Amino acid sequence: MVPDGRRLTLIAALLASPGALSGQAFQPVDSAQRAQARALCGPLADDSVLLHPLSPLPPGAVLSNRVKELEQPELSPASLELPQYPKQLREQRIHGRVVVAAIVDTTGRVEQGSVQVAVTPHPDFIPAVQRYVERSLFTPGQLYGRLVRACIVLPIDFRLPGR
């Protein structure tokens, strides 16, 4: 159960879809942050993959939402735990949005070492966000019914009451 009855409306989406903790404004990741985060996933097969249902993907290919046929990974309902707000940042009343990129594998888990921070209002948010993302489960990405590795961008908002 999420503390204080708060619920996660959506924290993870593939590149363009924003997420926020309940009670927060629905704000998309801006295009510059999205591009910066997407670049952190490393080489993507988006531009080189032949988008035909029978075409094989290169071994280990990573796709993003630029492939319109991709069924995007989504945060599993089993992962509705909120990231831990760092105590010292809460006490200092520091808030803001952390934008991370990660690669979701074909089992729906985030690949170890793939979580990369694109934007953060304070570096002390990074460990909490990395722990949260690494523990999250997703539905795997699919392309024409085949499970694929996918680059996701996760906007995670840390907000204080009254902000």
DSSP strand content? 25-35%
Describe the main β-sheet briefly.
Answer: 6 strands, mixed
Report, as a whole number of angstroms, the end-to-end distance. Answer: 24 Å
Dominant shape: elongated
Q: What name goes with the CATH superfamily?
A: TonB
What class, by secondary structure content?
alpha+beta
Helix content: 10-25%
Rg result: 16 Å
State the CATH class.
Alpha Beta
CATH fold title? TolA/TonB C-terminal domain
Average pLDDT metric? 76
CATH hierarchy: architecture? 2-Layer Sandwich
How many discrete domains?
Answer: 1
Outline the structure in words:
The chain has 163 residues and is an alpha+beta fold. It has a single domain (3-158), classed as TonB (TolA/TonB C-terminal domain), CATH 3.30.2420. Helices cover 15% and strands 26% of the residues. The chain contains three helices and ten strands, in the order ββαβββαββαβββ. It has helices at residues 31-39, 87-91, 126-135, and strands spanning 8-10, 20-21, 62-63, 70-71, 74-75, 96-104, 116-119, 138-139, 141-143, 146-158. Strands 3, 4, 6, 7, 9 and 10 form a six-stranded mixed sheet that branches. It has a two-stranded antiparallel ribbon with strand order 1-2. The longest helix is centred in the last third of the chain and has 10 residues, at 126-135. It is elongated, with a radius of gyration of 16 Å. The relative contact order is 0.26.
